[in-house]
Amino acid sequence: MNKKLLLIITIVMGSITAHAAQPMYYLDGKDGNWSAFHYYDEQSKKITSCFALSNDLTLGFKSNDEGVGLLLWNKQGNLVPKTESKAAITVGKQHFIFVMQAMDKNMSMNRLSEINFKRLLQSLSYGQFAFLEYQKNPVSMVDLTGLPSMLARFHQCIEKAKFKDYK
User: Fold this and answer.
1) Where is the secretion signal located (predicted)?
2) What's the pLDDT score for residue 21?
C-alpha cells in the first residue's frame, strides 16, 4: 500500500514539475479572423513570446527576445526544415517579397527589419485582404478583419514583455 501511495505521489509531483517547466498559453484576444496570445513561463515569471495569428493559420507575427518575425504556414506540410524559399504578400497595390526559412515541415519564418515590419503592418492594417504566394503554391487569401485590434494586443504584449517593438 505504501509503495503504491509513494508511486502515485511521485507521478503526480513529476507531472506538476514537468507542467511547471512548460510555458503556459494565454489568449489575449480574438477579433474577426485574428487572435493574439502569449506564452508565459511560470518559473521565470516572464512572457517568453507574443503572437498575432490569422485564425486560418496562414499568416502571423511572433515576437520574443530575438525580435519580430513574420510567420507563414504551409498546409501541405512539405517544407524541408532549415531551407529558404521566397514568399510574396500583396495588400491592395502594395507588394512585399520575403525570404522565409522553414522552421519545420509546416511553418516558415523571417525575422523582419524595422522598416519592413512597419511597412507591412501599415499596409495590412488598412487592407481588407492579403494575398499570399508561397513557394510554388497557389495564392492564398487571408481575411484581415480584426487584425488592427489584435495588433494592438500584440504590441501591448511586446511592451509588457519588454521585447524590442517597432510601433
Assistant:
1) 1-20
2) 62
Sheet with 24-31: list strands edge to edge.
24-31, 34-41, 46-54, 59-64, 67-73, 107-111, 94-102, 84-91, 129-134, 140-143
Rounded distance between C-alpha atoms, residue 14 and residue 153, angstroms? 35
Other beta carbons within 10 angstroms of residue 52's beta carbon come to: 29
In this structure, what DSSP letter does residue 149 have? H
pLDDT of residue 77: 82
The string of pLDDT tens digits covering residues 59-85 is 999 999 988 899 998 878 888 899 998
The angle formed by the CA atoms of residues 155, 65 and 59, to the nearest 5 degrees, is: 55
Phi first, then psi: give them for residue 78, nearest 5 degrees.
Answer: -115, 25
- Give the CA-trace dihedral at 129, 87, 76, 51, to 10 degrees: -60
Residue 124 has what pLDDT? 93
pLDDT-flagged residues of the chain (< 50): 1-19
- Beta strand extents in 32-149 (DSSP E only): 34-41, 46-54, 59-64, 67-73, 84-91, 94-102, 107-111, 129-134, 140-143
Set out the domains of the chain in order of their start, with CATH numbers: 24-161 (2.60.40)
